[in-house]
Amino acid sequence: MKKMLFSVKGLVLSVGLIGLSIFAISNYAFSNSPYLEKEFIVQKSVLNTFDLNEDEMSSYFMSDIFDKKLQKLSSNVNQKVLSAYSMLTNDDEIKIGDFKPMFFLKGNDTLLIGIKHEDGTISLTEFDISKEKPVKVKTQTKEGK
Q1: Which of 46, 69, 89, 118 has the most CB atoms within 10 Å of its CB?
Q2: DSSP secondary-structure letter at 120?
Q3: Do residues 114 and 84 touch, judged by C-beta distance below 8 A?
Q4: Neighbour count for residue 36 (Cβ, 10 Å)
Q5: Residue in 100, 115, 109, 103 with CA at minimum distance from that of residue 60
Q6: CA-to-CA distance for 93 and 16, rounded, in angstroms?
Q7: What's the superkingdom here (predicted)?
Q8: Phi, psi of 26 (to 5 degrees)
Q9: Residues 28 and 64 in one domain
Q10: How far is Cα 76 from Cα 134, in angstroms, rounded to an integer?
């Protein structure tokens, strides 16, 4: 009886370790990307909600702007993006519960910041970044698609 009890415990322990190993390996495989799956979903939602043409602009995630290892923009453009983002936070247009903003550049002069809000709406704020400091042009808010 004791031998049978030990073999059942051994079997349970083995299955548990195998499951843990599979989870660890799969987690490692998915963590190679610095972006979250939800970021891609929200990015598509912003594009669809405002009928934006993905081919006419470059899109960036928060980590592309804030993480120096991933930074893809020149320091001048990156500074303008950070300044525009700060304007939105100072104006309380980004609230607790909102998802990370998405950034879209059209050429070198236009920045769009899309924010998926907790209530399901999405706002898109356009900035003119052709000058030294960004200028807010307009903000639109729509029900997210």
Answers
A1: 46
A2: S
A3: no
A4: 14
A5: 103
A6: 47
A7: Bacteria
A8: -70, -35
A9: no
A10: 12
pLDDT value at position 45? Answer: 87
DSSP 35: S
- Radius of gyration of the chain from Cα atoms? 22
- Which pair of tokens denotes residue 132? 């030294």
Identify residue 23 by its one-letter amino acid code.
F
Domain assignment of residue 56, given as a range: 37-143
24 with 43, same domain?
Answer: no
Q: Are 117 and 57 in a shared domain? A: yes
The tokens describing 48, both together, are 């669809």
Residue 5 token pair: 């009890």
Q: Are 16 and 63 contained in the same domain? A: no
Q: pLDDT tens-digit profile of 30-47? A: 455 556 788 888 889 898
Residue 60 and residue 105 in contact, taking contact as beta carbons nearer than 8 Å: yes
